[in-house]
Amino acid sequence: MKISVSVWVKRPLATVWQCWNTPASIMAWNAASEDWHTDSSRVDLRVGGRFCHHMAARDGSIGFDFEGTFTAVDPPGLLDYVMDDGREVQVRFREGAGGTRVEEVFDAESEHSEGMQRAGWQSILNNFKRYMESAP
Length: 136
Fold this sequence. Notes:
By secondary structure, this protein is α+β, with helices and mostly antiparallel strands. The protein is 27% helix and 44% strand.
């Protein structure tokens, strides 16, 4: 099953692309809730390149690496990758009047409900929007 989430960001496409793919920026926005954060990020932004974002509870009780390999990189509009568990993700960036739409389509996993997965990924996208729109 594919799940789709999206957000409208009031920033230009080039700026959105840059902040989506820069480790320092990723560490500032990549979390689904206030009690989580990304404390390290590596990005080799090319087809065949790898990424690894270490996501952890702020209290240090748990953490995991979100890792994968880029399968398509076409700046500034398209980014595809496969996670290490084999699930595929497509990210599309489309500029419009006054901003950029970011859409992620990803393969669902079987451990959590569709609603839980959608809510988690949407929460991260909403955090990205807040970060982007609060930056000078």
